Amino acid sequence: MSRQDVLRALGAPEYVVNEPLPPGPGGFQMESFGAFPCRCNECILSSMVEEMGLDIDDDDVGEQGQAGSSALPRQNTWASASTSASAAETGASGRRAGDSGSRIEEVKEEEGGMEGTLQCAACRLKDKGKVRLCTGCRKVAYCSRECQVKDWKSHKSTCKPKKPEAESAKAASTATSTSVPASASTDASNEPVVVTPPIGKCARCGWDKNFDLEFCEACRRAKYCSQDCEDADKETHRAFCEMERKRIAQEKTENAAAAEREVHVPPEAMDHCSQCGSEKQDSWKLYFWKTHKAFCGETDRIEISSFYPLLACLIDISHDHILKPIHKAFTLTVMNDPTPGSNPMEFSDGWEAVPVLLGLPTRRAQRPVPIDRSWWPAAANSAILGKLAARIRREGFFLPILTAVSLALLSEMYTTTSAADSSQHRLRLRYRTMPISDFGICAGSARVVNQDKLGYLDMRTLSELHGQDPNDHYWLYFRTARGEEVLLDCAMFTFNLNMLIFARPYGITSDTFVPAFFQEREMRQNAPALHMERKRVSMLRSSQMQQVAANSARGFVPEDEDRVAAFMESLAGRAVTGVERELAMALAKDHTRVIREALQEEQWKQYPEDVQIAIAGDPGELDNWEERCDVWWDNLQKDKRKKKQKARKGRASGV
């Protein structure tokens, strides 16, 4: 029996059947982590049957349809692809995921009346200790997994879920179409059923295609993995598409009444008179103030060192947005001990990081992600378990997140203005005594050792996945009119930089602490450099982003999405994905509302001047504390001497 026959017997679609096998043990050395998994067809089939039934709750058959309707995000392995595809096809036929991969379940005592009549459907064995019910239909029994696999072809067509009447009625009221499970609505008349397309998956087959999907051009809500799926879903999608187009048209009509905003860009430097160009100090007081005073208005300067925690909170809650894909590590079980201090290993492509070994049992992809002992059974304690989960949760997608946060700041703060006869105040950022004249995003690398990086290995297929890359790093910069800079980096927590801020005063997250590394004057002068900048792009002075900010009150238009994508691509040096584009625009809308509320209600006046900072320690981190402090101090002095030598050479060469 070939692998293709095995997959077809399970009902997998052709793209899964024809997908090549993942790399075998020869492509990756596993001796240090235990035995190789068996790769014969029988074991592969057995593991697939087990994996595809693990989302079913044996104690409550009525919940099985709901569990099966949540297809896991498709990874680039044929085993997990078949799981997602089977779950998608389940929704298409109105059955649950267990129909294409049921498990066998031990007969419970309360079913005692059936015990005398049960026998294995394949070998006809009658044994109370061995016979188990099929969890798909609970009508047929088997004595072993081998018998279940042998009988699956004939049993597949009759494996129907057995549900209580109440659950059956509930399921009948929510069953809607031949598409993947989706919410729908209809009335008593013969109006067409409106099927809401799923988020992040093909509206027809349920495949996420590694999140490389195309929108329906009419409504920009439904997504498809191919033109064939889009054509096949036209009739089902027609009612929702028409409703969404009407909603968009109505929204555009309402937004058209709002005034277009104007972005007010401050002077880049305060080194000359804005009226006459004179570089003499106080010259503006003599020649300019009499005419300028009449329309100057009032300006409220917001200190960035007390305002940045709000931005850090926005960045942190962005990782829980529904459009950010759930990390693969949360859909499987952690099998080893990847705590800080573990030895890194070299992956097959040369990537070095602490390995996180992932295996069965699988876990349902859901939000919020449930974190408990079942996810990492070998965790030493709950604190270590939570720390690893927090590091993984905050991995990736920092480019669209930072773009959305900085765009929201531009849209809400730098569109405010004032005049002499107006009660409104313009709002601007400052750092200590100097106004902020520019802010944007830097791209580069961060200084990270391999012991603080994570890499993931799927033990089912030996497929590899890199964690966050310190060489593809992004952070915010704020530059004063005098040329001094402060930096805000919220992407270092996954690299085990455990600097946190107290988040409760800012009221937008349920977490007590959120990661934030704010590098201001003292930190810059007394700590080794953390970043190596390759490129920066100004958000405040970008004409394209100013146009996006001008449209923010009236509603973003499709051209704005192209402008935002071009901004991100100029930083990343690559084409951004559809997920990054969609996530950036959705977050920009959300964060704009939060910052608008904070500014209009003057919440920023209640923010503490001194931000409370905490350090999350790791086990053994305080061992040999004095000796480690001495080493740190010596390295700091060496770094400061290097900076001074570099500065002297620059002055000598006239640079």
TrEMBL record:
SUPFAM superfamilies: HIT/MYND zinc finger-like (SSF144232). Signal peptide: none annotated. Residues 79-95, 169-189 have a biased composition (Low complexity). Residues 57-111, 156-191 are annotated as: Disordered. Residues 120-159, 202-241 form the MYND-type domain. Residues 96-106 have a biased composition (Basic and acidic residues). Gene3D superfamilies: 6.10.140.2220. GO terms for molecular function: zinc ion binding. Keywords: Metal-binding, Zinc, Zinc-finger. It comes from the Eukaryota. Residues 66-78 have a biased composition (Polar residues). Transmembrane segments: none annotated. This is MYND-type domain-containing protein. It comes from Dentipellis fragilis. The lineage of its organism: Eukaryota, Fungi, Dikarya, Basidiomycota, Agaricomycotina.
